[in-house]
Every structure is written in C-alpha cells, then in structure tokens.
Amino acid sequence: MTDRIVQQHPDRGTREFELVDDAIEYRIKSQFADEELSVVLSVLSPEPVVDGSMMYFLSAVNREALIKLFIDLPDAETFAKFVRTVQQRIREEDFGKLNADNRESEITREQVDTTIRMLETYLDPTSIDALLSALGRLSETPDNREYLDKVVEIFNGLGAQQGAVLTYAPFFNTLLSSTDLDELS
To answer: How many CB atoms are closer than 10 A to CB 66?
Structure first.
C-alpha cells in the first residue's frame, strides 16, 4: 500500500500527495506559487478521470477536479499503487454518502410531498425521474424502510445531480451523517 508519492515535472514543478487519516493532503511547488491543500476523501468519487497526461479525482457532488496527478510519475508502478490506495480509501470513507440509518426522526408524507414539489419545480424532472418515482413510493408509505433505502440508493448514484438535489430539497440533508437535525428546524 502506497500512502505517499512525490511527482516532479520538468515544467510544472513538484507535487507531493499523502494520505493522512480521512484526507489526502497535497503540496504543489512551482516557479509561480506554492500551495497546500487537504481534501476529505469522502467528497471524492473513487473513479478518476484521465485527460491526456493528467488524472483527476473529482468531487462526487459537483464533479470538480479536486486532486490532479501527473500520470505515471514518479514511475508507473508507484503511481498505480498510489491510485489504487486512494480509490480503496475513498470507498472506505462512505460516511459522506446518504444513509437511511442517519435519519432518526419520523418521516411524514408532507415532508416527502414537499420534497417532490421542490425538485419538480427547480430541476428538470426527466433528469431525476427514478428519484421522483422512489420518492412517490415513499410518500405513499413514509414509514417503509425499504422505500427510504431505495431513495438513498438512487440519490447516491446521481453523480453531479446530487448537488442540485441537496440545494432544493433539504429533506436529503437529514440523511447525511454529519447533519445535526436541530440545525435544520
């Protein structure tokens, strides 16, 4: 398992990446600037995107490139090991995903119907039709745990649409592990 790599690029300087606890910390040193950042693993999608000589780990919510690596630096084997380790650690850090177990208060039909109306008003319903269908079933039987689990499963698979859904439907925030339900009232 490789928890740290240092990449030296002849034109773009040095990038150092290190997995520390639940985050990836990186330092960039170039002729133009020095930068240090830390990104929590739970916000990253485990499947990186390759673009030419670069590989990006994207935000699971808004698809913004948060971690930018030079492919095969310092060498192909070390790079591949590091990427596999990052992917594994991202998958282990699933507490940022919605989970029905995080919801402790009762779900009411009114909450679910309001959520449906908000999403239909502010988003293109055809882009989230599976989520709206699952919410419709949950509205009919708000105490059905299987229906809530299905809503969560569909939401977690939305990709870039998750950010918009969270923006217009506060109901989903109550399914995040870090949310204090008292703050939402």
So the answer is: 19
